[in-house]
Amino acid sequence: MADKKIQLAIIGATGYTGREALAILVNHPHVEVRHLQSLEFVGEDVVDVFPQLIGRISLKITKPDVPAVVRDCNCAMLCVPHTAAAEMASQLLKGGVRVIDYSADFRLLDVVEYNRTYNVEHKHPELMKDAVYGLPELHREKIKAAKLVANPGCYPTSVILAGAPLVRNKLIKTDSIIADSKSGVSGAGRSLNLRTLFAECNETVSAYNIGKHRHQPEMTQELSRLAGTNVAVLFVPHLIPMTRGILSTVYFDLVKKMDAKEVHSLFSDFYKNDYFVKVLPLGKLPNTGDVAKTNFCHIGVTIAPDGKLVVVSAIDNLIKGASGQAIQNMNVMFGLPEEKGFY
Amino acid sequence: MADKKIQLAIIGATGYTGREALAILVNHPHVEVRHLQSLEFVGEDVVDVFPQLIGRISLKITKPDVPAVVRDCNCAMLCVPHTAAAEMASQLLKGGVRVIDYSADFRLLDVVEYNRTYNVEHKHPELMKDAVYGLPELHREKIKAAKLVANPGCYPTSVILAGAPLVRNKLIKTDSIIADSKSGVSGAGRSLNLRTLFAECNETVSAYNIGKHRHQPEMTQELSRLAGTNVAVLFVPHLIPMTRGILSTVYFDLVKKMDAKEVHSLFSDFYKNDYFVKVLPLGKLPNTGDVAKTNFCHIGVTIAPDGKLVVVSAIDNLIKGASGQAIQNMNVMFGLPEEKGFY
Amino acid sequence: MADKKIQLAIIGATGYTGREALAILVNHPHVEVRHLQSLEFVGEDVVDVFPQLIGRISLKITKPDVPAVVRDCNCAMLCVPHTAAAEMASQLLKGGVRVIDYSADFRLLDVVEYNRTYNVEHKHPELMKDAVYGLPELHREKIKAAKLVANPGCYPTSVILAGAPLVRNKLIKTDSIIADSKSGVSGAGRSLNLRTLFAECNETVSAYNIGKHRHQPEMTQELSRLAGTNVAVLFVPHLIPMTRGILSTVYFDLVKKMDAKEVHSLFSDFYKNDYFVKVLPLGKLPNTGDVAKTNFCHIGVTIAPDGKLVVVSAIDNLIKGASGQAIQNMNVMFGLPEEKGFY
Amino acid sequence: MADKKIQLAIIGATGYTGREALAILVNHPHVEVRHLQSLEFVGEDVVDVFPQLIGRISLKITKPDVPAVVRDCNCAMLCVPHTAAAEMASQLLKGGVRVIDYSADFRLLDVVEYNRTYNVEHKHPELMKDAVYGLPELHREKIKAAKLVANPGCYPTSVILAGAPLVRNKLIKTDSIIADSKSGVSGAGRSLNLRTLFAECNETVSAYNIGKHRHQPEMTQELSRLAGTNVAVLFVPHLIPMTRGILSTVYFDLVKKMDAKEVHSLFSDFYKNDYFVKVLPLGKLPNTGDVAKTNFCHIGVTIAPDGKLVVVSAIDNLIKGASGQAIQNMNVMFGLPEEKGFY
Hints:
The structure is a homotetramer.
Chain A: E1 6-11, H1 16-25, E2 31-37, H2 46-49, E3 61-62, H3 66-72, E4 75-78, H4 84-94, E5 98-101, H5 111-118, E6 132-133, H6 136-145, E7 148-150, H7 154-168, E8 177-183, H8 198-201, E9 206-207, H9 216-227, E10 233-239, E11 246-252, H10 260-270, E12 277-279, E13 297-303, E14 309-315, H11 319-333
Parallel strand pairs in A: 1-2, 1-4, 2-3, 4-5, 5-7, 6-7, 8-10, 12-13
Antiparallel strand pairs in A: 8-11, 9-10, 11-14, 13-14
């Protein structure tokens, strides 16, 4: 399959996730970008929307047009709002197009939880059971064959990767996890919002949606599946004055005393075949700058003097937390090496 | 007059200029803030809009209501868009309220130039001749008696103060001035705008409106008045990734050779009675951080090895470039020391 | 006492804490700054070191000279490294000068803990018992009479104020507190350090010293004193890309179920007489921008859906976390209103 | 030659230029990095110095050792201070190693000008005549055969590319050019410096070295060579609060009236074969964010209403202004496509 080009459409291409996907895809030897569709900037060339791509691609933005995608493409990335994504996915799948959905529409397994969390009624619950949660480090085999991949949220990516080795090995108490995450502002997207104006969020830091963020159910679902039992996470996001990056500081109670070396070995072993997850040497802690504009997740583990286990993970929210992970998923789906096209 | 309280209204109080004015006024011993009016946040207490003021003031935001201002106040600050300002000013003046207008409606002397620059028809050209351009360092005496003060633009404040001593003393060529200004993002205001989203303007710098910015006529008008002849300024603004501040680097050709000491003496002498303008010691250049959250303008002068005179001025665009200057004007109008209420 | 001028010396005046103290003190009607002493910049005027003060003060920096302070002053602020501070404090106290020490030398009550934490031997343990921990909200009465005030650390100020109402009222478990703090870079001081270069810490976030920061013993000591029992805090500091501010997100387990209103009432009541601590309305969370360049601490309280109590506090690390608190302490010591001199 | 691997050494590898070179080189299919030498971090693996490279390279930092480079390499990048670079270059060239020197030692053609500008005596003036100024857009043919390439300064790269089409075509006055440049802080390097501490340069902007920066002679030399006559540039650099990027706003007087279209055509034509220089469509102005972490230079041209020509160029100071340009030069020297290895 790898010698056949991927004929790709991006629907909702003019936000940050579209931009970031393209910035990688212009280097991808196996992908031909066939359609860039959006409700905005219709008729403009993509380089007028994103001048950083000048001279590297040239394609007109067209209105969302699923039939055209079905006609020309074998893969589509959906960077559209939830509910709209479910509609499009349904049509694309019928047309034989494999779908990578950046929205939340197929991340949750339970339609009741979805409806409650997003305060809407899911349009295509029948598709939910076949969707694969697109965290390749956990679900690689299923992604290979998937027709519909639910690209994870940015915060869940960072928190799940920090907790996966622990819950799978039943090393921690499942009712006392706290994930204190710090995100750059690009996570709020490119739509107009008083809160994300430069003069509002520069030189300040704040917490928001304490225990009520929509990404919390996604974290608990995935960690619970890994644990084989219910896992609760108290998730507290913060907005900090930088453009890119999420640092998650995750607090765990060990069920039995372990030293840092043991925990470090466990993590290193767990991720030993995952190119994009790097467990830092013991004693080192990650920072978001080191993973900026990359698809890497850096993880550091520490045991505090009081015995508490603190795991810190760092990703670029727009890459490993969105567009890079989508391309990683695409590579897996089409039988390519996971890192193909990445620099 | 100074022993009588200033009864103040701010119309358009919920933008950055309103916030900055209030942050100073809560300390002002001679001002009672009577009305805070806005089209937004009506019914909310001002501290809900600007939590930094919690515990220092409490007042409900009400809809714009000029008659209430006439009834209760002897001074009004207009932080509303141009054209709206002219309408309100007219009514306030009729009601005997002294007006400090932050908009551009009364900055230009020539209605034709105004109409051309702002691409509207001036609603109250009859008021233009009595309005005073509110740069106290140049027009202090007229401001004392003024009923209507046109608070200067942020960029013009920085450029005019950099050029005033030179043009008044006829030391420079009047056809080759270049003002290259660098502004923080708050200058674009608090309204929603893709361009001022954090993720759009952080970690980047750009020029805009080269030679076509609406503040250019204001600079040339004031410098021409001082020179007694037509002065041309090529004004090139830049947006840089910080919240507050304008640095203007202004390039002049001297009509005859002067050394740096002479120029420095000239500036020091020119501003010797101006508390809010500080001419830095020879050899020092200003930066915007040093004047942040203050009403000061710092000026440094240099003569380059090739003989070109370079004057650099730094202000806080929201204080000396807007709300601080308005309060300075108010102090002058009401017979108070210029620095009263400032920290 | 209030009608007598405070004759003040600042020793170690050329770092950020000296600068911030002066920026407030130039407005303080009861303080005369008599000596600014430092090992650096000796012989320069303070305005050459801190150009933001130009025109507001003029004083030569001199070498540290305790006898001169004893001769001329009734109050000294020590902004020097720990151990050096203890030496100077001893001499100043003998000379009858009241001392506000910004260092850690007199914050801990237990000399063994001090020696262990700072890895030195305390030079003047005999003074420790009379030193007062200078958090006026907790120790106001003792500060009034104190000869030696230990100005709290920046992180402890934010964490202790977030926890004080809870531990004093025995509402929380004392063995499971987590304080996840986010600090601006100025907290690292003005000395040269690869880690605090702009290009190293801009656009990145990292955790450091997990469970091992020197401020942790200070927090646990003060909270334990309030609780009347041992309190453990896991303290995890983070460096974020902004200049000023600390946001502490503090996680507590309630000993019995309470709703948010009850907790909010408790906090409001606890701080009802504290001008510089503002408990935000229920539903609001603080941010550091709102307290920047002020001596305020803003506190928000939330109970997460899972019952965990999350208290968020925001301060300016250089003001309420250092120089502002020192001036607040000075005001208390000299019988002045706490907010005197502040804007 | 392209099928033979480039065996590369980087001497002075632990600063920002070394880091940036490596971040590109880990993807370069024709380069084997054989030596990373530095006075600092000796014995550490490069990924401990630059954790962003974890999993992509592993090599111990060794002390500077020119004989080892001669033994193992056919190409060396010198990221060491001027004067040290000349010494090493001399030995490397004798050993048959081709040299790309990031320092200023071989940028100027005139030893007297060099000695004056850098206030030292050049150690190897005999090598100056054979060194090639490594701006491939101007000197591509000479670079192909060069043994010694002088990698240009960051500011000169941005200013020369903005002026080259104009001076070569004799369209502008050569005595009135002003280059007002705005640089991110990484340009100051990774050494300790009070001025580049985060808390010193965040949220502020300043001009420095007006008309006296060491990069000015480099600009005038190259523009003069192109013009065939003496060209003077008044160069005024500014430091702005961002990590990467230089925006140069360059002011020119046209010798005869031209419209913007003509100037734009001239630029487009001049750079039509240069992959890394993109002339933006008429009406668009560049920003540094769009070229961050790339080797591109974006150029926008405008004619102001008063007839002044304003050219704005944007580069990443660490890539096109340093390490990327060095790799571009290396590609040219070794017969590879210029863009090889870049993403």
